[in-house]
Design brief:
Layout lengths: L10 H7 L12 E2 L5 H5 L15 E2 L2 E2 L9 H8 L7 H13 L3 H21 L4 E5 L9 H8 L4 E6 L2 H10 L6 E5 L5 H11 L9 E5 L11 H10 L6 E7 L6 H10 L6 E2 L3 H6 L5 E2 L5 E2 L20 E7 L6
Helix pairs in contact: 3-4, 5-6
The structure holds S-adenosylmethionine.
Length: 326
């Protein structure tokens, strides 16, 4: 198991954490939490194996880990109280937290939304899941939630981050009904081909496609609508799509200001409107209550809903590929 030693980041990396007036998405609020912008700009060739069939380790770390910049997965892990992060990740996390105090709460609300959605899909009879942007394993992972309800549930995790992939593989040793793919959402055909090659998921049967907290890392330039359409087209009727996505709607001005400031760092999140996020579900049928602030999506109890659910800054929704839909 890889731990998160306190590594001193290179001075150059510290400098990257300083805000610098550089990028801005045209006309749209953006925020930063993920340092994957450079990777996003260097999409591997289609079909290239981004991942490790064997995780290569160097001093206990996957050789591919870039310690010169923070990682979205590790920053996220830090916010969730995990141990799989480095000093450079913690610095960015603290910087973001100082600007957007609700971020840790948003991440926890996102995990809760994902768990509730997975349970609803299981209740609907779905027993296989493709979890893209799955992150570093933490408490209540999708396979734990799913297999506690249905021990035969199969899960394929996909992430762009080598630490997330390495940890997932470590965690899943001996769990034959799970697989891990190192791949990029911007190449959905590659993800689908790798998932098929694993022989874990049956694409002729209903599938749960999980995109929790990841589509906002895809800028408009990468045509997220088309990426999602490719994934939907591969899924059999009865399949469900789960999305949670950061938004600028209903956010207080100071939070948007902070998010705009943080967009000047290396990595951007593209905040989108409810209508844009709803569009990612295509012609699939939205389950009640539709695309709503995450805590409002089928809360376990009314007392679980915060007085101000909009403060978590993200919408969540689930849609089903009904038989009648082409
Ligand atoms: C905020 S975390 C969400 C983790 C998990 N889905 C959850 O809801 O708890 C976002 C994850 O998306 C991954 N990610 C970002 N861009 C990606 C891309 N283009 N392809 C695949 N994964 C990506 C990051 O590495 C990170 O692990």
């Amino acid at each position: 198991m890889i731990s998160g030693p306190l590594l001193r980041p290179p001075a150059q990396a510290d400098a990257r954490l300083q805000l610098s007036a550089s990028k801005r998405s045209a006309g749209r609020p953006v925020a930063s939490a993920c340092p994957h912008a450079s990777r996003h700009r260097s999409l591997p060739h289609r079909g290239e194996d981004l991942g490790y069939s064997t995780v290569q380790k160097q001093d206990g770390l996957p050789a591919e880990i870039d310690l010169s910049r923070p990682s979205a997965a590790r920053v996220y892990d830090y916010f969730l109280g995990g141990a799989h992060n480095f000093e450079i990740d913690r610095q960015l996390a603290e910087q973001i937290a100082s600007m957007t105090p609700n971020l840790a709460g948003t991440m926890r609300a996102g995990r809760e939304f994902l768990r509730r959605a997975v349970r609803v899909l299981l209740h609907d009879g779905i027993d296989q899941f493709l979890d893209i942007g799955s992150g570093i394993p933490t408490v209540g992972n999708v396979h734990e939630v799913a297999q506690s309800v249905n021990p035969n549930a199969r899960i394929v995790y996909v992430d762009i981050d080598p630490v997330a992939v390495a940890h997932s593989r470590d965690l899943l040793v001996g769990n034959d009904q799970t697989g891990v793919i190192h791949a990029d959402l911007r190449d959905p055909e590659h993800i689908l081909a790798r998932a098929r090659a694993l022989n874990l998921l049956d694409f002729d049967r209903p599938l749960g496609i999980l995109l929790a907290g990841v589509v906002h890392f895809i800028g408009d330039v990468d045509r997220p609508g088309d990426l999602l359409a490719t994934l939907r087209a591969a899924a059999a009727p009865g399949s469900c799509l789960v999305i949670s996505h950061s938004t600028f709607e209903d956010q207080p001005r100071e939070m948007l200001d902070a998010q705009r400031l943080s967009a000047r760092t290396d990595t951007e999140i593209t905040l989108r409107s409810r209508a844009e996020i709803t569009g990612f579900f295509g012609d699939w049928t939205l389950l009640e209550p539709g695309v709503v602030h995450m805590p409002l999506w089928r809360p376990d109890s009314a007392s679980d809903v915060d007085d101000n659910p909009a403060q978590f800054g993200a919408f969540g929704g689930v849609a089903r590929h009904d038989q009648s839909v082409g």
